[in-house]
Amino acid sequence: MPKMPRNAFYAQSGGVTAVINASAAGVIETARKHKSKIGKVYAGRNGIIGALNEDLIDTSRESAANIRALMHTPGGAFGSCRYKLKGVEKGGHEYERLVEVFKAHDIGYFFYNGGNDSADTCLKVSRIATEMGYPLVAVHVPKTIDNDLPVTDNCPGFGSVAKYVATSMREAGFDVESMAATSTKVFVLEVMGRHAGWITAAVGLAQAKAGEAPHVLLFPEIPFDEAAFLAKVDECVKRFGHCCIGVSEGLQDKAGKFLSESGLKDAFGHAQLGGVAPLVADLVRQKLGYKYHWAVADYLQRAARHIASKTDLEQSYAVGKAAVELAVAGRSGVMPTIVRVSSRPYRWKIGVAKLEDVANVEKKMPRDFITPDGFHITAKCRRYLEPLVAGEAFPPFEKGLPRYVRLKNAAVRKKTKTARAP
Q1: 3-state class of 6 per DSSP?
Q2: What does the alpha-carbon distance between residue 336 and residue 338 come to, in Å, rounded to a whole number?
Q3: At 103, which helix (H) or strand (E)?
Q4: Which of 62, 174, 224, 251 is most buried, by the most CB atoms less than 10 A from its CB?
Q5: Do 279 and 338 sit in the same domain of this protein?
Q6: What is the pLDDT of residue 367?
């Protein structure tokens, strides 16, 4: 007798992006085309917590139109979470719980959509399932606005954030320049990026020629030198009449300490960062006396679907589609990657990486992407970044505002007797 198709589990992990739902659409639409191997696609409500609590969503209850509408909807359609599985270090109980739930719902495919920590989780789930003798194909679907996953040329989610912050800085630059003679002379925009300055670099795309915003970029890879920074700001104000600054939330001093560290930790054990923009702006006021304004892009940068990069959207869908194709081919413990074939003209294709080469590895900015003085991006960096923000993919608009989809997210009946909330 032919084998019955087994079900799939999909979950979104960590901070969401403007296009993570495109990866979800890629997974679900592709799975629906492989009915001989994949039955239903269950999504975890609020990420991996949904599996631990057996709180599953039946995506088969959603229409093809609604799944397609995920292509232009930001956020995490099924809910995400910041939760690090502790099972392996404490006897493997949480991983055993995952297998218990998967077994109860005949889940043979595990798709985990996230960044560095998620790649590690996916790898561990794959190994634990093998150790327990449970047949499971586990594939990581890459996503992170930080653009810091290794092996892949770039990360789905990054291109849209890059487009948003570069656009924001260009627009703010025009504003500041028009008011600088009698008002604000310094503007500081804080963007995300704990250890890697890719988003800060993207701010630099706003500058088309010397004298335009941004004039100064502060990267986490370059230790903050207060004297050099203040001298650069003063020089720009005297030369151009104003100075616009892009700064990473992860800016560090020469001792390697975050300037904005609040002392708190997030769910993954990372330092909880406060606002570095007001710190930098106030330093300028105290030392140079210039009037300033500052802004923190925060969630706006990763939620801005209205100005998403078309390249990013296409790549986000492609990795979701490729994940399913790898899974039905029996490839486990892997991640689809983006391979750059050429930059001008820009061409790319999908590749494959082993999760052992991805998990818990951060890809930082190469030094030759940053100018010798440490305050801007080089031409090489610009050539890398420009294709990633290319193209527009506007959502549909209604009454002047973008129209997004909200799924039914119908619950799947529970089958296990236990319920283990984190």
Answers
A1: strand
A2: 7
A3: helix 93-104
A4: 251
A5: no
A6: 98
How many domains, the chain?
2
What angle do helix axes 226-240 and 277-288 make, rounded to 10 degrees?
70
Catalytic site residue from 55, 117, 120, 146:
146
Range of the domain at 99: 6-143+306-359+393-402
298 and 318 share one domain: no
> How confident is the model over 269-282, as a mean pLDDT?
77
CA distance 292 to 301: 22
In a domain, 151, yes or no: no
Buried b (16+ CB within 10 A) or exposed e, 282-317: ebbeeebebebbbbbbeeebbbbbbbbbbbbbbbbb
Quote the pTM value.
0.94
pLDDT tens for 97-131 read 999 999 999 999 999 999 999 999 999 999 999 99
323 and 300, same domain (yes or no): no
Residue ranges of E strands in 64-124: 107-114
Residue type, 389: V
Name the band, by pLDDT with cuts 50, 70 and 90, for residue 402: very high
What CATH number does residue 104 fall under?
Answer: 3.40.50.450
pLDDT (mean) for 359-366 = 93
Q: Is 364 a domain residue?
A: no
Same domain for 21 and 126, yes or no, is: yes
What percent helix, strand, coil does the chain show, rounded to 5? 40, 20, 40
Distance, CA of 80 to CA of 43 (rounded, Å): 11
Residues making up the chain, counted from first to last: 422
Please report whether residue 331 resides in a domain: yes
CA distance 313 to 89: 37
Is 234 in the same domain as 173? yes
Q: Which tokens belong to 421?
A: 């909330």
Residue 412 lies in a domain: no
DSSP notation for 295-329: EE-HHHHHH-GGG-BHHHHHHHHHHHHHHHHHHHT
Instruction: Give the whole-angstrom CA distance, residue 298 versus residue 410.
Output: 31
Q: Are residues 288 and 184 located together in one domain of the fold?
A: yes
312 counts as catalytic: no
pLDDT of 360 reads 85
CATH number at residue 280: 3.40.50.460
225 and 165 in a single domain? The answer is: yes
* Residue 113 tokens, joined: 């959509």
